Amino acid sequence: MKLKNWSVKKYFSLSSIVILSSLVLCVVFMFSPLQFYFKNQLELNNLKNQLTQVQMQKDQLQTELDRWNDKNYVIAKARERLGFVFPGELAVSVIEYKPASKSNQASKSNQLVNTDAWYKQVGESFILTQSLP
After folding, report:
1. How far apart are the C-alpha atoms of 6 and 93, rounded to whole Å?
2. Exposure string over 57-76, b if 16+ CB within 10 A, otherwise e
3. For residues 101 and 108, what is the distance between their CA atoms, to the nearest angstrom?
4. Domain locations along the chain
5. Residue 88: which region, alpha, beta or left (left: phi > 0; alpha: psi -120 to 50)?
6. What's the rounded mean pLDDT across residues 13-18?
7. Distance between CA 31 and CA 12 in Å, rounded?
8. Contact 91, 85 (CB under 8 A)
């Protein structure tokens, strides 16, 4: 009877070793594909986030492009940025008055300020350069 118990214990221990080793081999062989899968999923999520950001940027740029295709928007920007006026209109610039301190008044009194529109300044610069010897 002792022999039977010994053989059963030996068989059980051998079978458990075989099962355990096969489980370990399965885990080892599955580790690399699983790691590759999770790495690809992470990269896919990052690319989806980048795609969303690029699509939002594209939509913003398309909206801006559509605005520039509107004639009224172009006219408003030309008036605002370049100081353009229609014939018969008068360009007016509003300058906020701030009392200056005495030290600022002395330095500002020595400076010449040209308040003409930019296109008049450009025209005057051509006239000045042509009249030079």
Report:
1. 107
2. eeeeeeeeeeeeeeeeeeee
3. 10
4. 1-58
5. left
6. 82
7. 28
8. yes
Do 82 and 56 contact (CB within 8 A), yes or no?
no
Across 96-108, b (16+ Cβ under 10 Å) vs e yields: eeeeeeeeeeeee
**pTM more than 0.85:** no
**Chain segment 103-125, per-residue pLDDT in tens:** 655 555 556 666 677 777 777 77
For the cut 70, the answer to whether the pLDDT of residue 130 exceeds it is no
In 3D, which of 65, 63, 41, 61 has the Cα closest to residue 53?
61
